[in-house]
Amino acid sequence: MEMDMGSELGYDYRVLKLGGSLITCKDVPRCVKLEVLRRVSEEIRKFVNENPDKKIILLHGGGSFGHYEASIFDDNRIVRTSEAMQELNYIVAKHLLKSGIKAISVPGKFYTFDAVLSALEKDLVPLIYGDVKFDGSIISADDMSIDIAKRLNARLLFAIDKAGIIGRGGGVISELRGIDEVSILMQTNYYDITGGILSKIKKIFENNLNALIFDGSKTGNIYLALRGYNIGTLVRGNPNA
């Protein structure tokens, strides 16, 4: 396991996005993986306690809450999706608070970078979540995490429920240096990828960021990723960082 000392020494911020597939049950509407959420919260707390000079920004996706409700197109889709995401965010925030993390919720529909800075200035941990806007369009936690990481020049951490990006031999690709590598793998049918992961990778390269995509369900990985260890797949969108 290689440690990225450039990240460890050079960044004051960590932007950690908890994937919806990590914290919710994939095939059961409005089901939370409570044990995973409890452990993730404890690992975040451990890092925060050991690194008071580092600032963390947390985000989470919709999983079987927001995505499920948003997929049903009826007259109540907007309010149902909004309510579902509020419910999930409440559960996440409650676990973080119980672990001693001073998380403050920021609904995606009201997200601004200034709001994130205001929370950080008050020694709070912004907890931003994917959401639905008043016009019914979806605001992605992935997009907001990329915006924050770019503005702060911070390493971006995507905690998912898979070991990383799977490559040619069925194993995890330790590092991706170009979007063309992804295209080649997909064309030769060696690359099993969801639209969500592919979208993440494209946006990482488009924004010249470095991002780690790793298995947040494995005990200790959240803590190690926050520490700066390269686990899973490092998408190197900025080779100079």
From TrEMBL:
Give residues annotated as binding substrate: 62, 67, 141
Please list the residue ranges annotated as the Aspartate/glutamate/uridylate kinase domain.
14-206
Residues the record annotates as the site (Transition state stabilizer) are 26
Q: Where does ATP bind?
A: 17-21, 63, 196, 200
Q: Name one GO cellular component term.
A: cytosol
Q: Which reaction does it catalyse?
A: isopentenyl phosphate + ATP = isopentenyl diphosphate + ADP
| Entry-linked SUPFAM superfamilies | Carbamate kinase-like
Single biological process term from Gene Ontology: terpenoid biosynthetic process
The record's Pfam families line, in alphabetical order, gives: AA_kinase (PF00696)
Top-level taxon of origin: Archaea
One GO term in the molecular function aspect is: kinase activity
Q: Which family does it belong to?
A: Belongs to the isopentenyl phosphate kinase family.
Record's protein name: Isopentenyl phosphate kinase
